[in-house]
Design a protein that fits this description.
Layout (H helix, E strand, L loop, with lengths): L9 H10 L4 H13 L17 E2 L5 E5 L7 H4 L7 H12 L20 E5 L12 H17 L5 E5 H14 L16 E3 L5 E5 L4 H4 L6 H17 L1
Parallel strand pairs: 2-3, 2-4, 4-6
Antiparallel strand pairs: 1-3, 5-6
Helix pairs in contact: 1-5, 5-6
Bound molecules: iron/sulfur cluster.
């Protein structure tokens, strides 16, 4: 990864991400999933590599998820594309006027985002959706680079505890002052960060949360309504 301090373009960051092989366990897992494939997708060629961020370079809203899904983004090559989490995310973005279509099934579907950029704490699909701490540490530089490059962001939406902590640590890596001594994740929290950007937290729209009712459609929709209101306050 580059060590320069000036902001890289999103294209440069994406190129580095796709070529990255610094976490052997995850790189191997992504390839193995792509080799075996799920029965429903046997006829498809999986992406099977690290997945770059996706969205509007002029974004006011930056969404930080956990990691690509094994048969979602690791299959399609685009964040939150091709799985249930993506149905929740893009469905809501479309309802709020932030996505050109309500579904996201494949990377070449023409979907565009309006004012939104989607990224994640880890760019390789981890076994059991659980990246190791050292893997998150290695991957966080990409998030910091994106945060530097996306200089119109007004609201960061962190999905889940891992996404939340990735944002805090990336800010620290960028030399930005701490928000509070021990900021903790909880669903629905809103914090104004010293750089004048709001940090909103939500449960991740994983099936584990959405199928159990931990995250309901009403809660999910309210998160985006809050983000839109916050944007209008700045
Ligand atoms: S998780 Fe991030 S740092 Fe690790 S190999 Fe994938 S892209 Fe590279």
């Amino acid at each position: 990864m580059s060590t320069t301090r000036h902001a890289l373009t999103l294209e440069q960051i994406a190129d580095e991400i796709v070529r990255c092989d610094r976490c052997p366990r995850l790189v191997e897992h992504c390839r193995e999933i792509a080799r075996i494939r799920r029965a429903a997708y046997r006829g498809e060629a999986y992406w099977g590599k690290p997945v770059p961020g996706f969205g509007d370079p002029g974004a006011w809203l930056l969404i930080v998820g956990l990691a690509p899904g094994a048969h979602g983004a690791n299959r399609t090559g685009r964040m939150f594309t091709g799985d249930k989490s993506g149905e929740w995310l893009y469905g809501e973005l479309h309802s709020q006027g932030l996505a050109s279509r309500p579904d996201s099934l494949r990377a070449n579907d023409g979907l565009t985002l309006n004012g939104v950029y989607i990224t994640a704490a880890a760019r390789c699909a981890p076994p059991d959706n659980k990246p190791h701490p050292d893997e998150l540490e290695r991957c966080r530089g990409f998030l910091a680079q994106e945060m530097e490059s996306l200089d119109r962001v007004k609201v960061v939406l962190a999905l889940g505890k891992i996404g939340f902590e990735a944002v805090l640590r990336a800010r620290r890596d960028l030399g930005r002052p701490a928000i509070e001594p021990k900021a903790e994740f909880w669903h629905g929290s809103v914090r104004l960060m010293p750089e004048g950007v709001f940090l909103v937290s939500s449960y991740h729209p994983s099936q584990q949360n959405t199928s159990t009712g931990k995250l309901t459609p009403t809660m999910w929709s309210a998160t985006f309504t809050t983000a839109l209101k916050l944007r209008n306050r700045l």
